[in-house]
Amino acid sequence: MIYQLVFALSLVSMLGLSTPVEAGQCPEYLNQNIQKLHSAKTLNICEAYAGKPLLIVNTASHCGFTPQFSGLEKLYTQYKDKGLVVLGFASNDFNQEAKDEQEISNVCFINYGVTFDMFAPIKVTGESAHPLFKALAAQTREPAWNFNKYLVNADGKVVQYFDSQVTPNSPAMKQAIEQLLAH
Question: What is the pTM of this model?
């Protein structure tokens, strides 16, 4: 059995076919510990979600787009059993995030019922941006405002970028997610 597995993996490698990314092969920008929102716990995206498609969003709790939390939660609920992971990153880069993590968590978890992973506030723009958002920007573009959405495939490559104006329930976003999950 072991020999069959080794042979199959060797064949995949020789033919240049791709296999889902494992934690050891995960892109460096995803392979780091990031503090969860209003928690002392950290989460390593590679260890937790290697080989899964991701929807990464920069968020703020006092923004006109904050109601998108409801749509993001609906997407997560609809597609999580098919493998989609939604990750929210609080940020005050546009001066619309609460100053206190308790308030941020209340907005996310109580007001909008968010169950996907949310992370403590980080920088998402400029030279001091977190390496995660620097890598996302290098593949597409830097967030221009809150609630920019990056759809990332199982190999860690951004396949589509959606700005703040594109709502989570938009046909374009749902179509992109369904296409990604079909592959």
Answer: 0.87
